[in-house]
Specification:
Elements: H1 3-9, E1 16-22, E2 27-41, E3 44-54, E4 62-70, E5 75-79, E6 86-88, H2 97-122, H3 130-135, H4 137-141, H5 145-157, H6 163-173, H7 181-194
Antiparallel strand pairs: 1-2, 2-3, 3-4, 4-5, 4-6
Helix pairs in contact: 5-6, 6-7
């Protein structure tokens, strides 16, 4: 799937900004839909969108999921919403891929407000013991030492008492230039998994 191909699946009203990262084995397209913007706090605006991961060499499946882009620091978060999104390995053939992707894109776009609502609610979820919540991340989510170091650095930049700040520390860590693409996607997905249902 190419950037041109992705645009074919977007709603006609969409005026997307697309951040692309291509490696030898995988292409990641993070589609930001400014039409789905929300102010979380004063000076802290986020935009909903779509995360698409694909491989032209059969290394990875095609995946479509919710994506949230935080404007103030360019953090990104991936959230896999039940009954929205899509994941299919390349071995299953292309006959139904176009129809499946059309359904998946429409479902993800429809679920963006749900994800933004969950992010808004995370502002009201106290961590209780922020340091303990931070230290439990490697065990609970399988973070490597390098990934956790990046989270701690991001946390020091923007500490807080709520789930919102913890999620933002994890997504902030995903911007670390020393991390692999796999680690950055993993952190963005861990952050999305922490949002309240």
């Amino acid at each position: 799937m190419s950037l041109k191909g992705i645009r074919e699946y977007l709603p006609p009203w969409a005026n997307p900004k697309v951040v692309t990262e291509v490696t030898r084995t995988r292409s990641v397209f993070q589609v930001i839909l400014e039409e789905h913007g929300r102010l979380m706090k004063v000076g802290d605006e986020v935009f909903g969108g779509i995360n698409v991961v694909n491989s032209g060499v059969g290394f990875n499946s095609v995946e479509v999921a919710d994506f949230v882009h935080r404007l103030v620091c360019s953090n990104g978060m991936i959230r896999k919403v039940q009954h929205a999104g899509f994941r299919r390995i390349h071995l299953k053939g292309r006959e139904t891929l176009t129809a499946d992707l059309q359904i998946a894109f429409a479902a993800v776009v429809a679920s963006i407000p749900v994800t933004l609502d969950a992010m808004q609610r995370s502002i009201e979820v106290p961590l209780g013991d922020p340091e303990k919540a931070l230290l439990e991340l490697p065990r609970k989510h399988g973070l490597t030492e390098e990934e956790f170091d990046a989270v701690q650095i991001a946390w020091e930049d923007e500490p807080g008492e709520t789930l919102y700040e913890l999620v933002n520390a994890i997504t902030g860590a995903a911007r670390a230039s020393n991390l692999s693409q796999d680690s950055r996607l993993k952190l963005q997905t861990v952050a999305g998994s922490l949002l309240p249902a």
